[in-house]
């Protein structure tokens, strides 16, 4: 029943999808045939000689792609698995070569440096061709980053059975590029700590989804796991323990690992709220530090915010942010700005004294503070990124290039773009991975989560990035991301809580499937998401099952309407 | 703030709990002091000479307990972790010996054989004493199963720091026994398959929670992973693949592993519904096999039910159930009986023909079928267990010793016990671990789960097992269990979806905490559950974080009221 329900109309092509079309996210333009090809035992990937001095991360990407093709060993998800293809593959032509080429005149930069450009400047487009006769396949692009995306697609064309690696649908012609320049994932490493190995595995998984922005919410009120040169006292006193720390070397390692996978790492040091832990080393800079009852001073325990009206604190914060910014090559830096608690400052004698001495209102002081911290990060070459409250709730002077993250509700998107700011979708009602798992504050027998219910992959996938926006407003949408706030997470449930759910936004913001009928889009995505999820699992990420295997093997058979 | 809020009144004793009281489930009677004791380097556990021919599983349990005490290395969850105890522990007396003894005249049976007795006959009581002067600790019981429970408690008394294993609260006097004889966990291995290693790890975790009943929902409509002697065609054609099979040897291995840990394994072969997969090998026995649209014939795909009006099918089923029953030493066998779809039988020509030929109504045929299958399992010495519909929705003759599992709603409990049946709590509104994770049927953009929301540990913990029951009705309550239906689960998320949540019902049905104020019970349980969860993690189970570590280190500080 899948063969008839899976007729998908793409924007530019009419294409029949078969279960073999397991590329995720779906390419923007894809033409496939019905000819099987076996991978030759001597299969190799060659970087065209016209790419002089190919960067080392491109060489490594080629090696990684070869390893994936060799080791994935993914049996196709049909009844009988790979054996269902044996007859078709027997006697098929072999594919022995893939060649990577850059368009004439394209600059030869590393994948890393291309990925670390500003979102608008990243060129991720590529063309991929696999002829039906087994003569060489090719990927061409305008950048090494585009070649990397093409390689990622190429590895997803293959299935395996009984010693043979094959694809089913040659000739293949793909012209692909992302609908939006930002497909991200936020991970909070403060509420609970994640070792570097977990971050790397997450970056691997992101790269297989062509996600390009890791939003590292690295510190918060609960712990300060980042060793910052010149500010090492913050981690020394604020990390959970000496093992739960990211050294500058760890950061460089993560950033480099991400870059080689086409991912930029944007760090966030949330200010002026979400900073209680700074009081461990610098009590002089924090208002209402661990004040009780916490609910009067913060949205979650412990309470504590930077004394933003204090010149000394403003200077300290500016210095800290600049020092952190220098650890990350990204063009972006998030200064946060969410959930500022007014009562904390009202009750803080020092803050009131400072406001009185200058005659500033709280909002004026926040503006002064924000201008200072943004100036500090601009001085080291970064564009500021902020949470929506900085635009919607406060009177803060922001550069018009500032990126705004909407988190409270997708209902707030229009108000932000109406003010002319570029926007990244990160709304709790669609993209929060932690919602629906129960509440975590103590002495709460009901145990509900503030952002119930659980956000299913289907719900995220059905989000419309430009709902209610004018054409001009829609141009301000940079893309979007899933987010994992880690109050109830850790290495123990990282993979199951993130994957394959986050793949939904990866495809949403690359392929823009919701431009059509949502019910159909979710329906046709499911068998592809199964294949993708099983492939990710073959590569070592603990993606969860979306259905009984009986359903995964029978595309469409478990549909409500089947 | 914890020290004042943690005054807990137990049924028989007034006890001050400190964070060191990490025993889970909470002992029924516990007296502790404030004297620290260090574990001697030569610490040993001795089985009293009065226990002649101690069974091998008791010897193994002693070895396992020694290994846990040595390897747990759990630093106490306070700010500074174990170093906070260094001063107190320095110069403490050492504890060098624990002796296990049976009460005079007690039978010396294996833990396994004690665990496999009927629930009413299991004696799990024990007494544990740790004197403050470091002279020998002791556990006494009426059975090896009681000794095993005591050993489990003993291993949870210890913390670790910097090479020293210690406890803080000698003298300790514990008189303990379970409030209910059934503390269980159901795992569905049909929707998705779980290798034996995952089952064993789950049994380990259950044993640390003093859970004693593994309810193995081993087959269902989606797959038949059980190799049954005489019926091997069912797994040969109905397992997902040849690796996703439990051989008789695997079953014996799981049963033996469970028994040595004080756990009985009750197998379930759900009938007459939930049997579509039998059609792979025996189409003649299944009505509406894989009929479409599935929603007209079953609650989930694929449709298919045993042709219960057919004498041949009844005979086949009786034979199959007896053969499966013989693989399990338990006194219990579940024949299921949930979600029988009437339309499937109405539309099935064979069933209608059979009913017409005998003049039976459907309900009469169901009665005949159930009497036959129950007779078959009684013939091999088992007591039948059924789901609630067999009592509440159908007119089936059941032996009055039949155990009934309530799953649809806890509102149905009273109706079942009013009919005089023994009952096990398994209600979806309190104990379903799969709820709230999103729906899994395809083409469903909303993606809601039928049993939303997620059942938090707090919610499960606040369940009252005897709500609205008379004293006589309450005597029919055997206990309860958490349940994992595996439509969206597999080895990838087994630990995170089950633990530490299932610990809530383990303590609920052992310690009966809900006899007091629920808000207080949840509040005082949380720090103990943290310690327990972190300890389980040290032993290799991926329990999830319930709170930011900041909260875990500061009992009470993240309470709503703190």
Question: Which key terms come to mind for this protein?
Answer:
homodimer; 5-stranded mixed beta barrel; 33% helix; Chitobiase, domain 2; globular; N-acetylhexosaminidase (chains A, B); 8-stranded parallel sheet; TIM Barrel; 2 domains
- Through-space gap between termini of chain A: 8 Å
Number of helices of chain A: 21
Q: Rough shape of chain A?
A: globular
Of all chain pairs, the largest interface belongs to: A-B, 74 and 74 residues
Tell me the Rg of chain A in angstroms: 25 Å
Q: Classify the helix fraction of chain A into a percent range.
A: 25-40%
Question: Biggest β-sheet of chain A: count, sense, barrel?
Answer: 8 strands, parallel
Any low-confidence stretches of chain A, pLDDT <50, length ≥5?
1-20
Query: The CATH topology of the largest domain in chain A is what?
Result: TIM Barrel
Give the rounded overall mean pLDDT of chain A.
Answer: 94
Write a compact overview of the structure shown.
Chain A is of the alpha/beta class.
Written overview of the protein:
- The structure is a homodimer of 562-residue chains.
- With 562 residues, chain A is of the alpha/beta class.
- Chain A has two domains: 21-176, Chitobiase, domain 2; 182-511, TIM Barrel (Alpha-Beta Barrel), CATH 3.20.20.
- The first copy, chain A, is built from 21 helices and 18 strands.
- In chain A, the strands form four sheets. Chain A has an eight-stranded parallel sheet with strand order 11-10-9-18-17-16-15-14. Chain A has a five-stranded mixed beta barrel with strand order 3-4-6-5-8. Chain A has a two-stranded antiparallel ribbon with strand order 1-2.
- In chain A, a hairpin with a 2-residue loop joins strand 7 and strand 8.
- In chain A, helix 9 (311-325) packs parallel to helix 12 (362-379).
- The first copy, chain A, is globular and about 85 Å long.
- At the A-B interface, helix 16, helix 18, helix 20 and helix 21 of A face helix 16, helix 18, helix 20 and helix 21 of B.
């Amino acid at each position: 029943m899948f063969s008839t329900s899976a007729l998908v109309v793409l924007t530019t092509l009419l294409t029949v999808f078969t279960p073999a079309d397991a590329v995720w996210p779906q390419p923007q333009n894809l033409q496939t045939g019905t000819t099987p090809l076996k991978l030759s035992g001597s299969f190799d990937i060659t970087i065209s000689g016209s790419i002089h001095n190919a960067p080392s991360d491109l060489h490594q990407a080629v090696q990684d792609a070869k390893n994936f093709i060799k080791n994935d060993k993914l049996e196709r998800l049909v009844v009988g698995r790979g054996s269902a293809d044996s007859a078709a593959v027997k006697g098929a032509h072999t594919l022995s070569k893939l060649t990577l080429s850059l368009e004439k005149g394209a600059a030869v930069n590393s994948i890393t440096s291309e990925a670390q450009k500003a979102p608008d400047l990243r060129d991720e487009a590529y063309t991929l061709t696999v002829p039906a006769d087994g003569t060489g396949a090719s990927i061409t692009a305008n950048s090494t980053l585009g070649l990397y995306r093409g390689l990622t697609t190429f590895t997803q064309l293959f299935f395996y059975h009984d010693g043979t690696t094959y694809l089913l649908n040659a000739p293949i012609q793909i012209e692909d590029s992302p609908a939006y320049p930002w497909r991200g994932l936020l991970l909070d490493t403060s509420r609970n700590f994640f070792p570097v190995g977990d971050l790397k595995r997450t970056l691997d998984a992101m790269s297989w989804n062509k996600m390009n922005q890791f939003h590292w919410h690295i510190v918060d009120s609960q712990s300060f796991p980042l060793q910052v040169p010149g500010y090492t006292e913050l981690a020394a006193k604020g990390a959970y323990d000496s093992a739960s720390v990211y050294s500058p070397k760890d950061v460089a390692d993560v950033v480099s690992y991400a870059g080689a996978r086409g991912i930029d790492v944007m760090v966030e040091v949330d200010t002026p709220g979400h900073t209680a832990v700074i009081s461990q080393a610098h009590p002089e800079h924090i208002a209402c530090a661990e004040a009780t009852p916490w609910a009067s001073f913060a949205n979650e325990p412990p309470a504590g915010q930077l004394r933003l009206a204090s010149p000394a604190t403003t200077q300290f914060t500016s210095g800290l942010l600049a020092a952190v910014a220098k650890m990350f090559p990204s063009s972006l830096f998030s200064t946060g700005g969410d959930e500022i608690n007014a009562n904390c400052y009202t009750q803080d004698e020092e803050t009131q004294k400072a406001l009185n001495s200058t005659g500033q209102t709280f909002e004026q002081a926040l503006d002064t503070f924000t201008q200072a911290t943004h100036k500090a990060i601009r001085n080291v070459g970064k564009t500021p990124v902020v949470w929506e409250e900085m635009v919607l709730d406060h009177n803060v002077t922001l550069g018009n290039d500032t990126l705004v993250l909407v988190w409270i509700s997708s209902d707030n998107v229009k108000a932000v773009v109406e003010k002319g700011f570029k926007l990244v979708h990160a709304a709790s009602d669609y993209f929060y991975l932690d919602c629906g798992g129960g509440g975590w504050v103590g002495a709460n027998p009901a145990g509900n989560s503030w952002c119930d219910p659980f956000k299913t992959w289907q719900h995220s996938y059905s989000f419309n990035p430009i709902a209610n926006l004018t054409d001009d407003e829609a141009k301000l949408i940079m893309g979007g991301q899933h987010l994992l706030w880690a109050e109830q997470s850790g290495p123990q449930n990282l993979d199951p809580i993130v994957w394959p759910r986050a793949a939904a936004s990866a495809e949403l913001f690359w392929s823009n499937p919701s431009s059509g009928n949502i019910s159909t889009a979710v329906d046709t995505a499911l068998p592809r998401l199964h294949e993708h999820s099983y492939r990710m699992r073959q590569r070592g990420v603990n993606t969860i099952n979306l259905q009984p295997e009986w359903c995964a093997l029978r595309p469409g058979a478990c549909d409500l309407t089947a």
